[in-house]
Amino acid sequence: MKEQFKNGLYPLGFAAAFVVLWELAVRWFDIPVYLLPAPSSVVSSMDASLASHMTVTLLEALVGFLIANVLGLLTAVIFVHSKPIEKGAFPLAIALKTTPLVALAPLLVVWMGTGYSSKVVASMLICFFPILVNSVKGLKAIEHEAWELFSTYKGSKWDMFWKLRLPTSLPYVLSALKISSSLAIVGAIVGEFVGANKGLGYVVLVSSYHMDTPVMFSAIIASAACGLALFWAIAWLEKKVIFWQRVDEA
């Protein structure tokens, strides 16, 4: 517990030093506020409306994140148990991944409007591929000796999945969840850039039109805070779920 507290102080210390240097640099070099606002200006621009926009983006990202990970895991299970489906559908998943989300976002708005659904789907699309790839890899990463043992005792496919494949895949799945946690925020904000009247992406876009850089920075910092909160939540879950895994922190 004491060690964890000490480890938590390092990022706080670095963040505090960065903010102090940022404030001093802006004041020392007299940098115009529209180019780089001081942290004090950014903080003073934060109000209740920012929290409201932050809640909207976080909700869109969370829903997209959950749907993407459930679909990705189910698709991975199907791929592992059906070679023809894996060979046929995996290239489509890769094609979806390589298509830039900024190119798809306007289409999503045309199909679903400027409400929540288009942002949720944008967030879902960007989160889907990491969980799919890592889950397939994890579900296949079973040891040959364990496979032979289950085969010797004539274990069913369900036993093989529940007692062997799924536990083996958990480190891969949780690593994918950590990657997707930050991507979910990116997907929601990209969706808001294209068509929205609320959310952090909307705040960044509107403040850029008015050269209101402090508000823009406050929205960017809020989006980073959302990504960090999601990442830390998954990291905490990883420690609880994969309690047998030794993590070398040296």
UniProtKB/TrEMBL annotation:
<comment type="similarity">
    <text>Belongs to the binding-protein-dependent transport system permease family.</text>
</comment>
<feature type="transmembrane region" description="Helical">
    <location>
        <begin position="120"/>
        <end position="139"/>
    </location>
</feature>
<feature type="domain" description="ABC transmembrane type-1">
    <location>
        <begin position="54"/>
        <end position="238"/>
    </location>
</feature>
<protein>
    <submittedName>
        <fullName>ABC transporter permease</fullName>
    </submittedName>
</protein>
<feature type="transmembrane region" description="Helical">
    <location>
        <begin position="215"/>
        <end position="237"/>
    </location>
</feature>
<feature type="transmembrane region" description="Helical">
    <location>
        <begin position="12"/>
        <end position="36"/>
    </location>
</feature>
<keyword id="KW-1003">Cell membrane</keyword>
<dbReference type="InterPro" id="IPR035906">
    <property type="entry name" value="MetI-like_sf"/>
</dbReference>
<feature type="transmembrane region" description="Helical">
    <location>
        <begin position="92"/>
        <end position="114"/>
    </location>
</feature>
<keyword id="KW-0813">Transport</keyword>
<keyword id="KW-0812">Transmembrane</keyword>
<feature type="transmembrane region" description="Helical">
    <location>
        <begin position="56"/>
        <end position="80"/>
    </location>
</feature>
<dbReference type="InterPro" id="IPR000515">
    <property type="entry name" value="MetI-like"/>
</dbReference>
<dbReference type="GO" id="GO:0055085">
    <property type="term" value="P:transmembrane transport"/>
</dbReference>
<keyword id="KW-0472">Membrane</keyword>
<keyword id="KW-1133">Transmembrane helix</keyword>
<feature type="transmembrane region" description="Helical">
    <location>
        <begin position="170"/>
        <end position="195"/>
    </location>
</feature>
<dbReference type="GO" id="GO:0005886">
    <property type="term" value="C:plasma membrane"/>
</dbReference>
<dbReference type="Pfam" id="PF00528">
    <property type="entry name" value="BPD_transp_1"/>
</dbReference>
